[in-house]
Structures are given as C-alpha cells and as structure tokens.
Amino acid sequence: MRRFGVIALAALVAGVGCQKKSEGPSAAPAAQPAANPQAEAGSVVIAHVTSLTGDTATFGEGSNNGVKLAIDEANAAGGVKGHKITLQVYDTAGKPEETATAATRAITEAKATLIIGELGSSRTLALAPIADTNKIPAISPASTNPKITKDGDKTRPYMFRVCFIDPFQGTVMAKFARQNLKVGRAAIVRDVGNDYSVGLADYFAKTFKELGGEIVVDVSYKGGDQDFKAQLTKVKFAKPDFVYIPGYYTDVALLGRQARELGLKAQLGGGDGWDSSKLYEIAQGALDGGFFTNHYSADNPSPVVQGFAKKYEAAYHSKPDAFAALGYDAAKLAVDAMNRATDLTPTAIRDAIEKTSGMQGVTGTIRLDADHNPVKSAVIIGIEKNAPKYVTTVEP
Ligand code: PHE
C-alpha cells in the first residue's frame, strides 16, 4: 500500500514567512482550531486531494500548480477575512479508495474547511459522500460525471465543480463528428471500470444516433490494460469512419498506436481525459487527424487566458494544461466564496459557493446552476503533427 504524502505548503506562501497573521480586522471567528500542526494558528486550511502519482499524475501536477498559484495570490492580497490560507496536499495515487482515505484525513487531521478534488470522476464519487456527511464543502476541478453533484435526483449539498458535465461534452463531440466531419459510422471503445468513460460513451452514442448516425460496434477495456488488439480487431471489421475513445491519456495513446499497427485508419476522437503532454509522447503521431473536447485551450487569445498562462509559465516553466486552469479556477472559487461568506465556517462557505453567479475564471465565467454545475462552453482541439491545435469553441 502506498502511503500518503502530506505536503505542507504553508511555507511557500509569498512573503508571510513564519509571521502569524491571525489578528485580522474582521470579526469572523477563526475557521478551525489549529489542531493541525502544519497549519499556522488562525489560518484557514484548504486541502487539495489529487493524483500526484499514478497513471494520471500529470493531471494532478497541473491541477496542484494551478491551486497553489491561486492561493499564493490570495495570501499575497491578505488572505481571507484577515486569515492566511494554508494549503495541504494529499496524494490519491489516482485511486478511489485512496481518495476516500485522503478526504477523511484532510477533514480529521488537517481540519480542512474546504476540499478541492478529485480530478477523476470515479475518485470524486468516493469523496462525495464523505464531504456531505462531514458537511465540508468540496469543489472538483475536473470531474465531469453528473453523479458527482447529484445522488439520484437529489443534489449533493456539499459537492460543487468548476467544469462542464459529460452530457454536454458527449453531445459536443457527437455533433462535431456528425455535422462537421460528416461521420456516418462510429465505433466506441470504452473503459468499463471508469464512470467517466462509461457515461461519456453513452452520451456520445445517444446524440450521435439521434442525429442519424450509426454506432457500428461498442467494445470495452479496463484502464491499465496493455494489449487492445482483440477489441481493435473487432472495431476494424465493423468498418467505422470514426472511433470514439472517451478514456484517459495513457490508455488512449496505447490504443491509438495499436489501432494503427492493425491498419485501422478511422479518425479517432475523445474527451478531456486526453489532455496531457504524455498523450503525444506515447502516441507518437498515432492520433493525428483526431479531435477531443476540452475545457480550455492555452492558445485562446483572450487576455484572461493569456494573463494566466504568463503567470503560470513564470512560476512553473511549462504551459498550463486544462487541469492547471481548472485547479486555478477551483481555488479561486473557494477564495471568492470565503470572502463572500458570512463567516469562515464550512456551512457558511458552502452557502456562498452555492450563490456563485458570475466569477471570472480562466476556463470561463462560473455561474452555478441548481445542481451545482457551471454553465460553460467547451473547446474542440484537433491533433496535427502530434500536437494539439485549437479548433473551435462550442457554447452550451
Ligand atoms: N473529466 C474527467 C473525469 O471526470 C477528468 C479526468 C480525466 C480526470 C482523466 C483524471 C483523469 O474523469
């Protein structure tokens, strides 16, 4: 069993050093008693529960960089209600069980007032009941499955997100394939062990068929598999023009390579699980000509995106991916809600998050609907010469 690394980042906070900053002018009570040895007395603890290791480690790293950037900025501007924010990071290794343990530790040991996390839908689904039961608000940067914020027909009171959801993402790609690429015959390759992949495959299929397209074959794999030849041979025999693979980048890149080895020439498509530099490293051109939906493109010329990219590059010497932008937006929403809340108790912060109606984020303006989901646009990214290229933005 892997052990969790609790990384205290309080020391990274700009300019404050070891000085206490608990004597703010505000009458707000100290958020939580500092039973947490790593937090400064009087500081508010935000826990980031994310995959710093495992097969989506690049996503966790991007998200964590984004979260840190937003919290450093908030602290440099005086913190919230006179309290400094302490960020504590818990590694989930990209696993649901470890996410549950990390969330519990964030609440009981770190006395977190708010959790940011997780990225992957299956993991955030393990975190959601813990946030609700303990009445600690949680904001997922990137989990797009509808069940994250909705338990049956009930909205989960403490769960929120800053990304769009999969019924929208699946529809965007189905329409693009059908209407722009003029695809008639599509195949689906889904990861059956992943709520995100299964949901997205279903939403894509539904819209694609409604638009008159045909799903000629629908095959399954399990995340982490290495050999996809049996499934891909089936796909090849069904003669699709387009293969939809709503998986995570490591599997997708391998799938793409093996598809080409088998002589499958169809165009490939997917969702936000593709957005990693590792995708291109592993695929080595096998995904060229393909498209995926995403939350944001670093090529977007908007001043908000370019301003963020500049700050991010100065801090981390790399280009921010969508997970970096979403991590930043999740932390910004947390800080924004803390500033608007009547006090710094988790319940008051929850109430303030729920009322968010126009926070300017890097990935768009965040307005939360009744189900705690933002109403936001998606972008379509094309792959050319083994590199991502912004194609278009699709409004909800
Ligand atoms: N939207 C994806 C999900 O909900 C985001 C993601 C993809 C996260 C891949 C981690 C890895 O699962």
Explain what you see.
By secondary structure, the protein is of the alpha/beta class. The chain folds into two domains: 231 residues, Response regulator (Rossmann fold, 3-Layer(aba) Sandwich); 129 residues, Response regulator (Rossmann fold), CATH 3.40.50. Helices cover 38% and strands 20% of the residues. The chain contains eleven helices and 17 strands. The strands form four sheets. The protein has a seven-stranded mixed beta sheet, with helices on both faces. The N terminus is likely disordered. Bound molecules: phenylalanine. Phenylalanine binds next to loops.
Q: What ions, cofactors and ligands are bound?
A: phenylalanine
CATH architecture grouping of the largest domain = 3-Layer(aba) Sandwich
- Taken as a percent bin, the fraction of beta residues is 15-25%
Overall average residue pLDDT: 91
CATH superfamily of the largest domain: Response regulator
Task: Give the strand tally.
Answer: 17
Which structural class is indicated by helix and strand composition?
A: alpha/beta
Helical residue percent band: 25-40%
| Widest sheet: strand ordering | 10-9-11-12-13-16-17
Largest sheet: 7 strands, mixed
What gap, in angstroms, lies between the N and C termini?
Answer: 42 Å
How would you briefly describe this protein structure?
The protein is 38% helix and 20% strand. The chain has 396 residues and is α/β, with parallel strands linked by helices. The longest helix is centred in the first third of the chain and has 20 residues.
